[in-house]
Amino acid sequence: MKIVMLSVMMPAVENIRGTSALPYHLLAGRDKSIEVILYSYNLNRLSKVQIDSVAKELNIKIHLLPVPWWYNFVLRFLLPFRIFLKNPIGNYISLSTVQLDIIGKENADGIWIYGEELSCVSNQLKDFKRVHTLPDCESLYYYRMLGKRFVMRDKMRYWKSVFVFPKYLRMERLFDISSNIHYHLVGEADVDFLKEINPGIQAHFLRHPHYQLANPAKVISFSSKIKLLIAGQYNLYMQQDADELINCLCSSRCTEDLKEHYVITFLGKGWDTHVRHLEEAGYEVHHIRFAPNYIEEIIKHDIQITPISIGTGTKGKVLDAIANGLLVIGSWYALENIAVEHGVSCLQYRTVDEVISMLRKIYLCPSHYEEIAQSGRKSVLRFHDGELTAQQMFSLLQA
Prior knowledge:
This protein is of the alpha/beta class. It has helices at about 20-30, 50-60, 70-75, 95-105, 120-125, 140-145, 150, 155-175, 190-195, 235-250, 255-260, 270-280, 295-300, 315-325, 330-335, 355-365, 365-385, 385-395, and strands at about 1-5, 35-40, 60-65, 110-115, 130-135, 180-185, 205, 225-230, 260-265, 285-290, 305, 325-330, 345-350. Helix 5 (about 120-125) links the parallel strand 4 and strand 5 (about 130-135). This is Glycosyltransferase, group 1 family protein.
C-alpha cells in the first residue's frame, strides 16, 4: 500500500515544538509493506539534519511544503488580526494547483492528514480515501477551559478562550463527512464531542501509542525512601492541582511522617517556588530543569504524581511513566484515555487532598503498590502498543 501523508508537523521521536511524537510512532509501528511519502509544512522547525535522520529511521520519503508567506506575516506582525478571522489561521492553508498535481501523480492508495487545521487541504483531495488524524478535538479543549474557575481568574487566558472557541467549533462543524474519510482521535470524549457537533462524521478513538521504553526494563521495587517524581513544565495545565498539592504536603498538621518516607523530585521548568516551600517544610527535594535522556531519568524514580487540571486527549508523559514501571497517581484529566483502572493499575484522585492518604498507604504496604505499578505497565504495553495502534489506524484507509 502506498500512502501520501500531509502534515503540519515534522514527525520526531519526542514532541518538539508541537505534537510531533504521535505521527512518528504511528509511522514507526506501521507494517513495513506500507510505503509512505510525507509532505510536511515543518511548523515545528526541525533542521535538515534532523529531517534526514527521521526519513532514514522511518524509511519514508520527505518533501517540504513551503509555509505561505501570509501565515508567517500575520503571526509576526498582525497577531490581533486573527480575532477577525472566522476560523483558526491554519485552516486557511491550502495546496496550490502545482502541489495538487504533484501529489496526484504519486498514485497513492490513500491520504493521511495530520493536524486538525488542514481540513481545507483534505477537502482538496476528496477523490482519495483519507484518514485525518486531529489528534484532539480543539473545541472540546476550549469548552473545558471556559468551564474552569481558575481560567476565569486569568483574564488573558479567559478572553483568548472566548474568542478561539467559536472558531474551532465552526471549523469542526464544517469537516467533510463523506464516506471516504475517517477521523482519528486519541481521546474518547473528543470523539463524542465531535460527533455531537458534527453528526454523521466517521470519527474513531484509537489508543495513543506509548513512546520510549528503557532498556533494560526497570525493576519495580520501591526505594527505602520512596522516590516521588513530578514531571513536566509548571504551566496552566498543572497550576491549580499542583499548587493545592504542595499546600497539602506542607501542612504541618498531618504530613510529618511523609517527610521521613519520601524524597521529591521535580523534572521541568517553573517549579522553583514549590521546591523552596517544600524545603522550608522539611522535605528532601531535588529540581532537574532538563534531562538529556528523559526515560533514563524517570526510571530512577518509583512514583509519578501528575496533577493535571485541564486538557484533552492522552498525556504522553503519563504513558511514558506507566509503560516504564512507575506507579502513577493522577487526576482524571491525567489518566483519561489510558487503559488503566484505579486501584488495579494506577491511583486516581478525585480531590487533591486524597493524594496525602494515598502516599501514607503506599509506604505502609509498598509491595501492594509495586504490584499495581506492574499491572499498569502490562496494560499499557498491551493496549498502547505502537504496532497495534498503527495497524488500526492504517486499516481505516482500507475500509
